[in-house]
UniProtKB/TrEMBL annotation:
<protein>
    <submittedName>
        <fullName>Sulfatase-like hydrolase/transferase</fullName>
    </submittedName>
</protein>
<feature type="transmembrane region" description="Helical">
    <location>
        <begin position="114"/>
        <end position="137"/>
    </location>
</feature>
<feature type="transmembrane region" description="Helical">
    <location>
        <begin position="15"/>
        <end position="32"/>
    </location>
</feature>
<keyword id="KW-1133">Transmembrane helix</keyword>
<dbReference type="InterPro" id="IPR017850">
    <property type="entry name" value="Alkaline_phosphatase_core_sf"/>
</dbReference>
<dbReference type="Pfam" id="PF00884">
    <property type="entry name" value="Sulfatase"/>
</dbReference>
<keyword id="KW-1003">Cell membrane</keyword>
<feature type="region of interest" description="Disordered">
    <location>
        <begin position="527"/>
        <end position="559"/>
    </location>
</feature>
<feature type="transmembrane region" description="Helical">
    <location>
        <begin position="79"/>
        <end position="102"/>
    </location>
</feature>
<dbReference type="InterPro" id="IPR050448">
    <property type="entry name" value="OpgB/LTA_synthase_biosynth"/>
</dbReference>
<feature type="compositionally biased region" description="Acidic residues">
    <location>
        <begin position="547"/>
        <end position="559"/>
    </location>
</feature>
<feature type="domain" description="Sulfatase N-terminal">
    <location>
        <begin position="246"/>
        <end position="480"/>
    </location>
</feature>
<keyword id="KW-0472">Membrane</keyword>
<keyword id="KW-0812">Transmembrane</keyword>
<dbReference type="InterPro" id="IPR000917">
    <property type="entry name" value="Sulfatase_N"/>
</dbReference>
<feature type="transmembrane region" description="Helical">
    <location>
        <begin position="38"/>
        <end position="58"/>
    </location>
</feature>
Length: 559
């Protein structure tokens, strides 16, 4: 490699390399462990001190590489992949491989991470500096050159991102069962009430019921508690795999199944999907068949994560997001990086309900908020006027904002008489990701918000071990519909005495089955599966028993 001119050479490259490596190691540790950022300079200093003690980059006896031997370290790619994982963990808290798969294929257009563009640039520059430091050390220190291949193996083996991808790939290769698919019950309305109620389904972004613990979180959830006192509150709605991000939570609660991404089953890999779970009927499909006029409103873009595609393909006549609603704001600049603030969104929601209420037949409105979005939330100006200035960090401020706005919306609609014969559902789309209250949140079991109020709904609280897939049949029965065996999809109505899959088999069993099976995944994405796999699936038998475990009765498989 030619020697650069002296006026271009970096002074003291050994110390620059150690400094860059120390800072990157410190940042990774503080990000993944959530240590205070004050630990970063301490870790970097310790790293430089260790390098000085061991004379990294300046060995007592230098052994140049053999003639023709590679000069590029094996660890460059593993380090870059770890950098990607740290970036995702810093941006989203929990790195869900299923979410990565889905968002790559469903589209990440117009997401709310525009504020992360600067961070992404800094990450890229930092990674380039780190890779340059590794290259310099391996070329100037034979000890690093000899140990670096082992470092590459350790980094590859320990990367959680790669671990999750290989797990998903193994499931597709082994294709070893269809137990989940056998539990699936086709959603079907058998009887309809004489006067079907309207439906208002409010998804409260990341506002899990765990926040109701006043010893840990004060009055942040108090307004939702007040709403719950007028209706039926379910405690114990857990989060299972593939339901832990917004689209996954909405699909689980409207389709009765975890969102198992198309993954390697999709024959166009990272071409954006033109359909979202086309193989199953969901809440919108059933209600549209019953004559409901359906609308979805959300402050974020409907182009993100296939949200608009999902609602348009599953029975919704009106789908409104940032693109449609922002021009209607009095101040079009009153938006955040994701889209509209919740006070604006709720104003448009009231307008839409007024419009639907003037028409004939029942209506349904689904609404998705943004105030509680990790890591800090996006409190609306109405909340700032009520709660005082937001410090930009405290998630409990944003939780209180979301809870108050939801209660205020319901009270405003009631005052106008717009909730007559209307079932109101309040539910979190998923548990929150890493936020300022994380240490308190993970002290015990966590569960999602799920409460119902309206005509015929009893008042009280019920403890059930359930998951978001059970929300779907519960909504149908709460609306007065009769469904097959109190079931829809993988869900069981919590208004019945039938055991849920979580109660009967436990979360670990469900998670294991999701890792090992693809039959349900193929059902969700029917029409996107390559033709060869479809042909194999239609070779005659309704159920293909592929393993001895699958051949055994369900009660023998699981204690």
């Amino acid at each position: 490699m030619p020697t650069p001119p002296k006026h271009l050479a970096l002074p003291h490259p050994r110390w620059w390399s150690l400094l860059v490596m120390g800072l990157c190691v410190g940042y990774a540790i503080t990000t993944l462990t959530r240590l205070s950022t004050w630990w970063l300079p301490l870790i970097a200093t310790a790293w430089i001190g260790l390098g000085a003690l061991l004379r990294w980059g300046a060995p007592l006896s230098y052994q140049p590489p053999a003639q023709g031997r590679r000069l590029w370290p094996w660890s460059l790619l593993p380090i870059a992949l770890w950098g990607l994982y740290v970036y995702l963990a810093d941006s989203f808290g929990i790195v869900d491989v299923g979410a990565v798969y889905f968002h790559l294929q469903a589209g990440m257009t117009d997401h709310g991470g525009v504020g992360r563009i600067g961070a992404a640039v800094v990450y890229c520059l930092s990674m380039l500096a780190l890779l340059a430091a590794i290259v310099w050390l391996t070329r100037h220190d034979h000890r690093w050159r000899r140990a670096e291949p082992l470092l590459a193996i350790v980094l590859l083996a320990s990367n959680p991102l790669l671990y999750g991808i290989t797990q998903r790939g193994a499931a597709i290769v082994t294709d070893d069962g269809a137990w989940l698919n056998r539990q699936y019950v086709e959603p079907m309305i058998l009887e309809t009430p004489e006067t079907p109620p309207n439906l208002l389904l409010l998804y409260l972004e990341s506002i899990e019921r765990t926040y109701a613990d006043r010893e840990r979180f004060g009055d942040a959830y108090a307004d939702l508690d007040a709403v719950g006192e007028r209706g039926l509150v379910y405690e114990g709605v857990r989060q299972i795999n593939n339901t832990g991000w917004t689209m996954a939570g909405m699909i689980a609660s409207q389709c009765g199944t975890p969102l198992m991404p198309a993954g390697l089953l999709h024959d166009r890999q990272f071409t954006p999907l033109d359909k979202v779970v086309p193989g199953v009927d969901c809440l919108g499909d059933l209600l549209a068949e019953e004559g409901y006029r359906l609308a979805y409103l959300g402050g974020a873009s409907t182009a993100f994560a296939g949200k608009g595609i999902f609602y348009e393909d599953h029975g919704f006549e009106t789908v409104l997001g940032r693109e449609e609603l922002q021009p209607r704001l009095e101040d079009p600049d009153y938006v955040n990086s994701w889209g509209l603030y919740d006070d604006s969104l709720y104003d448009f929601t009231i307008e839409e309900i007024r419009r639907l209420n003037e028409g004939d037949g029942p209506w349904g409105v689904v609404n998705l908020t943004i105030a509680g979005h990790a890591p800090h939330g996006y409190p609306a100006q109405a909340c700032i006027d009520r709660q005082g200035e937001f410090n930009g960090i405290d998630i409990l401020y944003s939780v209180e904002c979301s809870a108050w706005l939801a209660r205020d919306l319901i009270e405003r609609l009631e005052r106008e008489g717009l909730l007559d014969n209307t079932l109101v559902i309040l539910v979190s789309d998923h548990l929150t990701m890493r936020v300022s209250a994380w240490d308190d949140l993970i002290q015990g079991d966590r569960d999602n918000t799920f409460m119902l109020l309206g005509p015929g709904i009893p008042v009280g609280r019920e403890q059930r071990e359930a998951s978001m897939v059970d929300v779907f049949p519960t909504i149908l029965e709460a609306m007065g519909f009769t469904i097959d065996w109190h079931r829809a999809g993988l869900g069981v109505s919590l208004l019945s005495d039938e055991p849920t899959l979580v109660e009967e088999h436990g979360k670990p069993t469900l998670h294991a089955r999701m890792r090992e099976e693809t039959a349900l995944q193929e059902r969700l994405w029917e029409g996107l599966v390559p033709e060869r796999r479809q042909t194999e699936a239609n070779t005659g038998q309704e159920q293909v028993v592929e393993t001895p475990d699958d051949a055994a009765p369900d009660e023998d498989i699981y204690p």
